[in-house]
Specification:
Low-confidence stretches: none
Function: Plays an essential role in type IV pili and type II pseudopili formation by proteolytically removing the leader sequence from substrate proteins and subsequently monomethylating the alpha-amino group of the newly exposed N-terminal phenylalanine.
Radius of gyration: 20 Å
Largest sheet: none
Membrane topology: Multi-pass membrane protein
Subcellular location: Cell inner membrane; Cell membrane
Structural class: mainly alpha
Mean pLDDT: 89
Family: Belongs to the peptidase A24 family.
Number of strands: 0
Order of helices and strands: HHHHHHHHH
Distance between the termini: 28 Å
Catalytic activity: Typically cleaves a -Gly-|-Phe- bond to release an N-terminal, basic peptide of 5-8 residues from type IV prepilin, and then N-methylates the new N-terminal amino group, the methyl donor being S-adenosyl-L-methionine
């Protein structure tokens, strides 16, 4: 297990480096492949030795080697966060057929959260292909485990969460973006594959945390009643939390009524 977690953490650092490119370029409609990473100050290509996740930023003290332009601290933060989350997911899921699927969820969660916070959008370029990628990865997971009920549950979860968000979008126009609706289907697939408790807990936490944070921002004058607060990060936080603790939280809640979670 230690080896798996370590390798996953290293993979996460590398993926985090790529996610920085995704976060910067995808909202602008630019390719994430070409051109290679360049300094925004002098436009010189980033050397390979200066592109080592986290370490290069520390060695260069957050500045370009050539022109001294400052490099945002968010770059190493995204890399480190992705590495830590990959390690945590590997520890939670273990060496299983489902691990690639939930590592992919982790990667898009980091990228989409950062983009939504930046530009208040959840780009179709990431969300829509995730339906296909997620479906294939969860299909492979069910093939490997022989748990076809989990796959059926994933499909039901995806459709159900998509329908709930679409209904909220129609009933209260402007309350959330249509990107949130599209993302809901992807998250429903992941949470449904794990179980009904994870699906319900993940959906509930998104609104709970989003509501608490929004009230806090208004109370402290950081936002007004009509301010647009990106909801995607709360959806993703709720989903990732449910991956780790959804079953336990579901069991705890129904236990309050003397029942047992399915």
């Amino acid at each position: 297990m230690i080896l798996l977690v370590t390798l996953s953490a290293l993979l996460g650092l590398a993926v985090g480096s790529f996610l920085n490119v995704v976060v910067h370029r995808v909202p602008a409609g630019r390719s994430v492949v070409r051109p290679s990473s360049r300094c925004p100050g002098c436009d010189r290509g980033i050397l390979r030795r200066d592109n080592v996740p986290v370490l290069s930023w520390l060695v260069l003290r957050g500045r370009c080697r050539h022109c001294g332009t400052g490099i945002s601290v968010r770059y190493p933060v995204v890399e480190l966060l992705t590495g830590l989350l990959f390690a945590a997911v590997a520890w939670q899921v273990g060496l299983s057929w489902a691990l690639p699927a939930y590592l992919y969820l982790t990667a898009i969660a980091v990228a989409l959260s950062a983009i939504d916070l930046d530009v208040h959008r959840l780009p179709d370029a990431i969300v829509l292909p995730s339906y296909l990628v997620t479906s294939v990865l969860l299909l492979v997971a069910s093939l490997g485990t022989g748990d076809w009920y989990a796959l059926v549950r994933a499909l039901v979860g995806g459709v159900a969460l998509l329908a709930v968000y679409f209904a909220l979008f129609v009933v209260r126009p402007g309350g959330m973006g249509f990107g949130d609706v599209k993302l809901a289907g992807v998250l429903g697939l992941y949470l449904g594959w794990l179980g009904w408790s994870e699906l319900l807990v993940g959906a509930f936490l998104a609104f709970l945390v989003g509501g608490v944070v929004s009230i806090g921002l208004v109370a402290f004058g950081r936002a007004g009643r009509r301010s647009r607060i990106p909801f995607g990060p709360f959806m993703l936080l709720g989903a990732v939390t449910a991956v780790f603790a959804g079953a336990a939280l579901g069991q705890w809640y129904v236990g309050l009524f003397g029942l047992t979670a399915a």
